What does this fold into?
Amino acid sequence: MPSHPAHIAMAGIPIISHVLPSLPIITELVARGHRVTCANDPVVADLLTATGAEFVPCVSGLPVADNDWPDDPIAAMDLFLDDAVAALPQLAAAYRDDPADLYMYDIGAYAARALAEAQGRPVLQVSPTFVGWDGYEQEVAAQLRQLPGADAHRAKFAGWLAECGAETTDVDAFSGLPGRALALIPRAMQPHADRVDTAKVTFVGPCFGPDGPEGSWARPATAENVLLISLGSAYTHRPEFYRQCLRAYGDLPGWHIVLQIGKHTDPKELGAVPANVEVHSWVPQRAILEQADAFLTHAGMGGCGEGLLAGVPMIAVPQAAEQFLNADRLVELGVARRIDTGDATPENLRAALADLVGDAGVAARSARLRADARAEGGTMRAADLIESLLR
It folds into this structure.
């Protein structure tokens, strides 16, 4: 038990890839005797209360139910800003008479930063993806500011900051890094890692509970090799792509295939499924990766981190957002091949698999990156850092 148990608040958004990475940290903080409250949409309440934390309802307007995200980046930024504007009065009401000793917030839930600054409380950003680096404003943000609608978005953001009680009223400073941040990714996946301010950011790698992978999976005794195919949790309605995978790897000698199709794809859309393929809407991904020989991934940051942590070579088929950058980074690290969806023919998919598993250099680099990722400390290091902020 800590000498001074604290009230720690974690504010998030109901996107599953943003919820799952921090759950082991919350569980560990509760186990250490702290009182943890988690503010998020009721749709993820069960996930959060399973950690032992208290749930604080904060209704979100983000389009997670139907996965109807706009392609335009400024429109997407507007969605998150509108969500923050709506979230702040909910958070303020919940924590007005019960303020936290430390506010933690997901990168998409920056209303919590505004509340922490208004209350004069410590604040910690928790990022499930890469963070900004020295030069990010000039190399990335400046390009976004040239897009149609960017000026109106920034004006709305600035107006909200002027009224919400936050100490940081500059839009770029507020949407950037606070004084401290945790990055729940392998440092190897961070663009320009040498230009990240390590006085502000600590890379702890993917975080998991003490009992290993959640869920279990038994590798068939007859499987010489195992390939896991998963496009994550968001961009999963890709029946034609799955059919291409079945053509590429179905009945491939020596290979057993685990195909996750998500909740938006009906298995009937796949057609005939070869005998060496098992199909699921969800799989215990990390448990399978610990036994797999290759991983076909959409290159979401969670999948990239789990693939590196397992030391498994990857075929990256990015679908949206930062996944294209992640895919290129995996290729740069020498542990993956990138195939864009339009080029994902059975021939190209088969060739990429054969190329990866037959390359001794890929195996050696995968093993080195696996060791590096595991040395970053994960859940325990994250919890230790959080407690140091409380002191």
